[in-house]
Design brief:
Elements: H1 8-20, E1 24-25, E2 37-38, E3 41-44, H2 50-60, E4 66-69, H3 81-92, E5 96-101, H4 110-128, E6 135-137
Parallel strand pairs: 1-2, 3-4, 4-5, 5-6
Helix pairs in contact: 1-2
Length: about 140
């Protein structure tokens, strides 16, 4: 599938086909080896509002997903009212919010990275009103 072929309709079709083949949506912490689990993970780098359309497709198919947001992003502000509305909508659709952590912004020191990741998780929790227990690294 080329980038041009990846449309919302194509995504819906792909997920529908997987569900029909017995795949079931689950969270990373619920996955079981040798079971057809479908783990949906989305790093939001550019446009938070676009996540809602994808989240609605997943929700209509009975699938949950994890959406990871940057706290230091030049393209969106996680504290902006529009972004907070996205968080609320995603959670209302049964999805989870996680931190998309950009370790390149901090010194390459494990204690510092742990401290900053925890700080960003706490800040994201304050914005979303939900626990943030998952981290996806940005540009690992």
């Amino acid at each position: 599938m080329s980038r041009e072929d990846f449309t919302r309709a194509a995504y819906r079709s792909l997920l529908s086909a997987l569900v029909k083949r017995g795949y079931r949506g689950c969270r990373f912490d619920e996955a079981v080896p040798d079971r057809p689990d479908l783990l949906l993970h989305h790093d939001i780098d550019l446009w938070p509002e676009a996540a809602i359309e994808i989240a609605e497709i997943e929700n209509k198919l009975g699938l949950g997903a994890d959406y990871f947001f940057l706290m230091n992003c030049p393209l969106y502000n996680p504290a902006a009212p529009d972004t907070i509305a996205v968080f609320r909508r995603l959670v209302s659709l049964g999805h989870r919010i996680g931190l998309h952590f950009d370790a390149a912004l901090y010194p390459d020191d494990l204690d510092t990275l742990n401290h900053e990741a925890a700080r960003e998780c706490n800040a994201l929790e304050a914005l979303t009103g939900t626990p943030v227990t998952l981290i996806s690294f940005h540009r690992p």
